[in-house]
Amino acid sequence: MEGKKVIELIDADIYQRDALILSDVNLEVNEGEFVYITGKVGTGKSSLIKVLNAELPLQKGTGEIAGFNLKNIKHKEVSLLRRKLGVVFQDFRLLPDRNVFQNLEFVLKATGWKNKTEIQERIDQVLRQVGMTEKKQKMPHQLSGGEQQRVVIARAILNNPPIILADEPTGNLDPETSSEIMNLFRDLNNDGKTIMMATHDFAAIANKPARTLVCAHGLISDSLKQNVILDFESLLGF
């Protein structure tokens, strides 16, 4: 695929603590791509996302994302990297003692926003984008799972990052809500954002075919091409 390369791993080993999860990962992702990472539980999907987010160290091999060297990234550079990444977690990680607006305000202030009017306008903008304008005064516990995930997506795009990393974003949602969340990611991709999504939601993949990486037996393979749907369960050994 044509386009600027925004993610690259070369001969990378992915560890979870001291356990080697994936070996010899070679990966290139170009600007504007939509890439799924799938595989059975424990095969390295989430660990790969965490390495790209600099949440786990890249212990062997080389890697680069959004212009940052993952192998030698300094602690002070991690926050700068994360301003270029939007990360969507399966477990939401919303601050339970703050309402929706305050959760988003916290992120903007932490990343250098100071003007109250600009903060208000940006929060209103992203909440409109995810269909949550009427919920900004609600506390996280007052929201459904799908609503919380919409807030998490709003949080991820606050600083208009070029790359979105999503770790099982529909894993705890019912099929109808999952479809709605996937539509949001589709819209973000159509707006030009690069999306890497770890998922075992085969229905979501079938509804939006895209390049798919498969984690299995300690390796990752780029074996599913766009617009080609295979028997996922057979492929993954279910």
Topology:
Blueprint (H helix, E strand, L loop, with lengths): L4 E12 L2 E12 L3 E6 L5 H8 L7 E6 L2 E2 L5 H8 L2 E4 L11 H11 L5 H14 L15 H12 L6 E5 L7 H16 L3 E5 L3 H6 L3 E6 L2 E6 L7 H5 L2
Parallel strand pairs: 3-8, 3-9, 6-7, 7-8
Antiparallel strand pairs: 1-2, 1-4, 4-5, 9-10
Helix pairs in contact: 4-5, 5-6
Features:
single chain, 238 residues, alpha/beta, Rossmann fold, four-stranded antiparallel β-sheet, nucleotide-binding, Cell division ATP-binding protein FtsE, ATP binding, transmembrane transporter activity, ATP-binding
**CATH homologous superfamily classification:** P-loop containing nucleotide triphosphate hydrolases
**Biggest sheet details:** 6 strands, mixed
Tell me the CATH architecture: 3-Layer(aba) Sandwich
Identify the CATH class.
Alpha Beta
Assign the structural class, choosing from mainly alpha, mainly beta, alpha/beta, alpha+beta, or little secondary structure: alpha/beta
Ends distance: 31 Å
Radius of gyration: 18 Å
How many strand segments? 10
Structure characterization notes:
The protein is an alpha/beta fold and 238 residues long. It has one domain: Rossmann fold. 34% of the residues lie in helices and 27% in strands. The protein has 8 helices and 10 strands. The strands form 2 sheets. Strands 6-7-8-3-9-10 form a 6-stranded mixed β-sheet, with helices on both faces. Strands 2-1-4-5 form a 4-stranded antiparallel β-sheet, with helices on one face. The longest helix is centred in the C-terminal third of the chain and has 16 residues. It is globular. The C terminus is likely disordered.
